[in-house]
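Hey, I was hoping to borrow your eyes for a little while. A protein chain has come my way and I'm curious about its shape. Take your time with it, there's no hurry, and the full record follows here:
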Amino acid sequence: MALYSPFPNYIWNLSVAIAMESGGQIGEIVDMCQPILKAADEGADAGTPAFMREWARMGEKLLDLAAEDEAKGRAFSASNKLERASLYLFTAERMQGHGHPGRKETFARAREAFDRSTSLGKINRERVEIPLAEGTMPALWTRAPGDGPRPAVVFCNGLDSCKELLYWTRLPEELARRGISTLCVDQPGSGEALRLQGLPVDPHSESWATKAIDWLIGQPEVDAEKIGMTGISLGGHFAPRAVAYEPRFASGAVWGANHNWREVQDKRMQREGENPVPHYWAHVHWAFGAEGQEDFLKKSEGMNLNGHMDRITVPFLVTHGANDRQISPTYADDLFDQLVNSPRREKVIFTAREGGVEHVGADNMAYGRDLLSDWFAETLGGETH
């Protein structure tokens, strides 16, 4: 497999790989992983306190180094260190079980570092709040350069990511390069919406995606006729569903097809396939606002795109890694085959020839990032050269 694997379990290796693809420095990552090699032998769940301790320690060191840069007036250098501090702190937090001591505080430190980095680095991303029927959907708004209304893309989380990790995929950067703005959202059940507002997963993703479109068309720099949507991991379920039921979307794509997520849960109960995070069942109960396994299975019962995809009448791209150990590539086939009314449907399975073979390209996000960026440029009227 192409996934960098310093640990004996997939879950820890996935987090390390995502951090590397999100801007982590290899020397810092080695320094964080080396002291916890033995802790990993205790199991993906049992050893997670040691994981958080080492990764948070590196994050705190970078916060100190950033403060030294800032005191010298070196704002850009401080921002660079704050980016990595935030990344490592988010990674440390993501690996903990719900309610674990220090998790809430670590998330707050990560957010604070991220926001400070945005300011000091003059980074093209603005924190915004999208009104929902209940609460808000925190988001990051990255503007395309140039004058006049431009296309825009809504980019949503999977089960266990956050809008900051979406930004670090560098998809917003590549879309902006092509003249397209990006709205990275913490939809209900993810990121701040879950952690700070207690908003659970809403399987009917069109309910919050519609609110994202409402916000976008209120921005003078957005062309209301050229709005697309994509999602990563479980976002590969939410995005097609939203495009199917929200007619204002003009194009769609998935970074990993999650066509029948409820079936995936049934298989995981039979210990088939890898989990994305430690303490998996406790995490999904929390994310769905479920009181236990029976309640979770009831709440997730409808998370199956069969019978819905014929409603999509706009261009749609399906991507998946050939060696995805969490979500079978056969779900990409199911999604593609059911896009019978899309005027332009494409399916790309990333193979060993190019990379990106693991779940959401955790081994190499470059090919997924480029392909999705070009897709939206071609279908929404952006630029590819």
